[in-house]
Structure to design on (235 residues):
């Protein structure tokens, strides 16, 4: 299950700039012959990357970017928050709740989890390593339980640190899950798992596939809304 984020192919770029609410953003323009619409991403340092479909105008693309001013501001805030070091009081998503990290006496508390701080290692790395191990214990077991309930066989399951997918299902019925599922509500995590399991029945995103999803996960639309609203905060 891939995030609804555009993956931009390399192209000939032309530098531009865009002034939004008094802030000047550098803009890199990239034409892509397969693009069907304007696509905007905010890169490191606030550089905007604007993909222009074949036949569309740069001026039209810049007007499109200007209309995304509120989104650009939110994305920059998210990026700045994400790059800030974690410390006592930092708020982190865990099991669908925003929990405050408590650091004291060589221990880190996150919700119900107690984690040993490691000398010389950043708090974020320590917490994320702990959550990765938690995910490796919990997610494969949950997937196999749901697979058995729906009489599906998987050849294997792995948990990884993915940056653009919540999960994936290969043609060999091997499923990969993002460790960050443990940061979501259980209903959303289950939806992602069921989504990938249904690719065993329908290896596509056709209407038949979504009927399969609806048959096993009636709350999938609510889960999708949660992912659209909060997924970027987790990644």
């Amino acid at each position: 299950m891939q995030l609804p984020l555009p993956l931009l192919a390399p192209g000939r770029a032309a530098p531009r700039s865009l002034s939004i609410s008094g802030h000047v953003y550098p803009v890199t323009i990239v034409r892509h012959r397969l693009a069907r619409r304007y696509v905007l991403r905010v890169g490191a340092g606030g550089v905007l990357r604007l993909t222009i479909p074949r036949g569309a105008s740069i001026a039209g693309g810049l007007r499109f970017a200007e209309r995304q001013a509120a989104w650009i501001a939110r994305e920059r805030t998210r990026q700045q928050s994400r790059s800030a070091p974690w410390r006592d009081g930092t708020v982190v998503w865990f099991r669908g709740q925003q929990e405050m990290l408590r650091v004291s006496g060589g221990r880190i508390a996150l919700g119900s989890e107690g984690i040993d701080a490691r000398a010389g290692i950043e708090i974020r790395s320590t917490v994320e390593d702990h959550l990765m191990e938690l995910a490796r214990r919990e997610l494969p077991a949950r997937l196999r339980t749901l697979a058995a309930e729906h009489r599906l066989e998987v050849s294997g399951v792995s948990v990884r640190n993915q940056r653009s997918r919540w999960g994936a299902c290969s043609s060999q019925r091997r499923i990969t899950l993002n460790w960050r599922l443990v940061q979501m509500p259980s209903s959303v995590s289950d939806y992602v798992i069921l989504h990938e399991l249904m690719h065993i029945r329908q290896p596509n995103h056709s209407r038949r596939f979504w009927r399969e999803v609806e048959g096993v996960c009636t709350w999938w639309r609510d889960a999708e809304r949660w992912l659209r609203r909060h997924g970027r905060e987790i990644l």
About this structure: Helices lie at 58-67, 69-83, 123-149, 186-201, 207-216, 220-234.
